[in-house]
Design goal:
The protein is mainly alpha-helical. It folds into two domains: about 1-60, no CATH class; about 65-105, no CATH class. The chain is about 25% helix and about 5% strand. A two-stranded antiparallel sheet has the order 1-2. Helix 1 (about 20-30) runs antiparallel to helix 2 (about 35-55). It is extended, with a radius of gyration of 19 Å.
Amino acid sequence: MSSEFLGVDNNWNGNYGHYQNDRIDEIIAAIPLTSDEEELKALYTEATEIYLTEVPSFSLMYRPEQFHAVNESVWTGYPEMGDGDNIPPSNCTDGYGIAALYNLELVG
């Protein structure tokens, strides 16, 4: 939601709609400098309210294979970039990514 990189040709930061809101920029700048939990809660709440009111972006498709998070509390051994396996780290359910399933180990 930051407008910090508006005008950058390759738009690498994900602000595809070129959304700009000065208050959001202030909130984004304040969050990493804030350690008070109540103040953080207020900042995140305000940012969420602005987002839900102005709706600067929304998803037209659900593509879970494009976004992944790994929780290694149950299974370990997920592929990582540069680990030498040459297994695509983003999708272990399709194509050669299935090879990653053979490297997983159960925790405990």
